[in-house]
Each structure stands twice: as C-alpha cells, then as structure tokens.
Design goal:
By secondary structure, this protein is α/β, with parallel strands linked by helices. The protein is 35% helix and 26% strand. It contains eleven helices and 13 strands. A hairpin with a 4-residue loop joins strand 6 and strand 7. Helix 10 runs antiparallel to helix 11. The longest helix has 16 residues. The protein is globular, with a radius of gyration of 18 Å. The structure holds adenosine-5'-triphosphate and magnesium ion (MG). The site of adenosine-5'-triphosphate has 20 residues, from strand 11, helix 10 and helix 11.
Amino acid sequence: MSDQGGRRALIVGDVIDDIIVVPQGPIRPDTDTTASITRHPGGSAGNTAAWLGWLGAPVDVVGRVAASDVERHAAAFRALGATPHLQADPERPTGTIVIVVGDETRTMLTDRGANARLDAAAIDDALLGAAGVLHLTGYSLFDAFTLDDLAALTARARAAGVTVTFDPGSTGFIADYGLERFRQALAHVDVLLPNLDEGRLLSGRDDRDAVADALLEHCPAVVLTGGRASVLVARRGEQAVEVPVHAQRAVDPTGAGDAFTAGLIDALLRDATLVEAAAAGVRCAGSAVMQAGGRPPVAVGR
Ligand SMILES: Nc1ncnc2c1ncn2[C@@H]1O[C@H](COP(=O)(O)OP(=O)(O)OP(=O)(O)O)[C@@H](O)[C@H]1O
Ligand SMILES: [Mg+2]
C-alpha cells in the first residue's frame, strides 16, 4: 500500500434504518402477532464508518437519507466519532430494512429509499483530498451509481493517491445486477473484499484459491472472508496468505463483514501491509459478532 500518513477513511454508501422484528411465536396471517420491534441505524457503509469511529480512526461518511432524518443519523455517527456528510433527500424516505427473525431464519424486506439517489458527483474534492482509503459497496451500484459514475469517482480518488476498497455486498444484488456488468466494476477497485459466496458467484469458481486467482484478473488484491473460517489474502504476483480466525459462538453475526472492513481500513491508514490489515479486520469483526446489532456500542462519555 502507498503511504497514507495522516489521511482519513472516506466511506460512501448505504445508511439504513434496520427494523428488527422478533415475533412471539409463528406469524398469523390476517390478524395480530405480538412481536418485539426495535429500530437501529444500519446500512453497510454506515456500519463500517461507525466501527471505524469506534476504533478511533479519522473517518468521513457520505450517504443519503430523508431530509427529516439527517440530524438523527448524523448524531448517531458523531456519537461514535465518525464525521457525517449526509445528503438530504427531499422526497424519498430513509432506506429501511425490516428483518423478521425466525428460529433459524432471517427474512429481510428491503426498501432502498434515499440510498438509490446517492449522488457520487456531489462528493467534493476536499473529502477525496483528505482521504487515504475510499470504501464503496456493491449496493450503490445497484441503483445509485452507473458504471460511469463509479469510474469517475474512483478516477478522482486515484488521482488524489487514494486506495479504493470495495465490498460486493450481497449475492442477491449481484445476480439481479448481472454478473458481467458487475465484473466491469471491479476494474476500478484496488482491494476487493468479498465473502466466499460473493467470490464464488463473481468468479464462477468453487475452490477458494481458484476464486482468488480468478478475481485477481479483475483487480490487484482480494481479501476473501468466510465467516468463522480463515481469511485469504491474495495479491497479484504473490503467494496467497491465510489469516486465522478465532471462531466464536456469535451472539449476532450482523455486520461482521462491515466491522472486518473497518479494522482492515484502519490498519491500512496506519501503513500496515494487507496481511496485517486483514488480521486487524479479524480482530474488529471478532468484537462485532459478540454483540447484538450491526454497529458498535456508543462509548460512555463520548
Ligand atoms: N463466528 C465467528 N467468530 C469469529 N469471527 C467471525 C465469526 N463470523 C464472522 N467472523 C469474522 O467476520 C469476518 C467477516 O465475516 P463474513 O465472511 O461472514 O462476512 P459477511 O458474509 O460479509 O458478513 P455480513 O453478513 O456482515 O455481510 C470473518 O472473516 C471473521 O473474521
Ligand atoms: Mg458482507
């Protein structure tokens, strides 16, 4: 990685209201079912920025929410030490995911709301100029950014010496978007951060080493996570390295990937190697799986 000395993380993408529904017993159609319903700030980019703030990293987060929710979401970021730059959508509601938790299942109903209108061109040069790492996710490609928008934003980042990291985000969205088109996006990425399922889908391969090799044809570095399995760090022209994971009985795996990304970016900002950064990602994700929800607890006294 190039020297990022003193530079900030710039996280661009989804900011969401997660509504978690835990019904007391089977859902009864056409009548009431008592449930516990809680609301938490979420979204992949929002969660990564929150964990970066929790780690003490200098971090800017760019997202888009309903105009009436800007202050609420901005306050949640500030409480964790992340600096919000939220676009106010005058029409669309804040993106919302209703997560219905069953015994063995999690059913997610997604309304991307204002996230679909996130404006990449509105990200100003001062933010890019202060950044060492720009992190994007596949969710933005689904509706907010065209491939040209992505190319333009990442070209501006590269011109400013910024490393571009990218989390594909979700196999379902990749499939909906179209594999070929999604692969074109990877040409704009320095470090790709898929989980194994996303890696398999994107590469068309099954074996983990083969997945990494195939993805390296698109971008110069790939960090493949696999839940409680070890992480594979692969760079073009180098031997791939496995980073061990200390598997835990997760309290809640929501946001593990986002916390992993935060740990990795924090380390890259401190000039760690990619293998060292993956190990830092594992440590941060290890904290995330031991607590409920996708974001870290707010530190007392902040
Ligand atoms: N049970 C676990 N114990 C310890 N660490 C875990 C566990 N599950 C996940 N992790 C950590 O989180 C990282 C990311 O997990 P995973 O590969 O499941 O990401 P993901 O599928 O992108 O998750 P998300 O659902 O947040 O998108 C793993 O590489 C690992 O470091
Ligand atoms: Mg993920």
